[in-house]
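Q: Hi! First time doing this. I have a protein sequence and I read that you can turn it into a structure. Is that right? Here it is:
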Amino acid sequence: MIKAKLRNRESAVADYTAVIDMPGAPADVRAMALYNRSLVYSAMHKDSKAIGDLEMLLELEGAAANVRTEARRKLVRMRRSSDRLEQRSANGES
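A: Yes, that's right. Below is the predicted 3D structure, encoded as structure tokens:
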């Protein structure tokens, strides 16, 4: 989390990925790593990766309810933003 706050995003993604891929990592820890990695991806404008992480989190059994709730909220906001951008693009707006 410190690396993400310091905007060392690539390194933060690598650390979160290591936690997500860690054999035997508790589901709640993996869920938080997925959520945090999605935030970093979003900050990097890699929305499809951010959305993928949020969707993976929502499918993860054992994730805490509050993390699931925040993931759903973030996913809704990202999809709305994406829809607005697509609509602007279709209308020839920049």
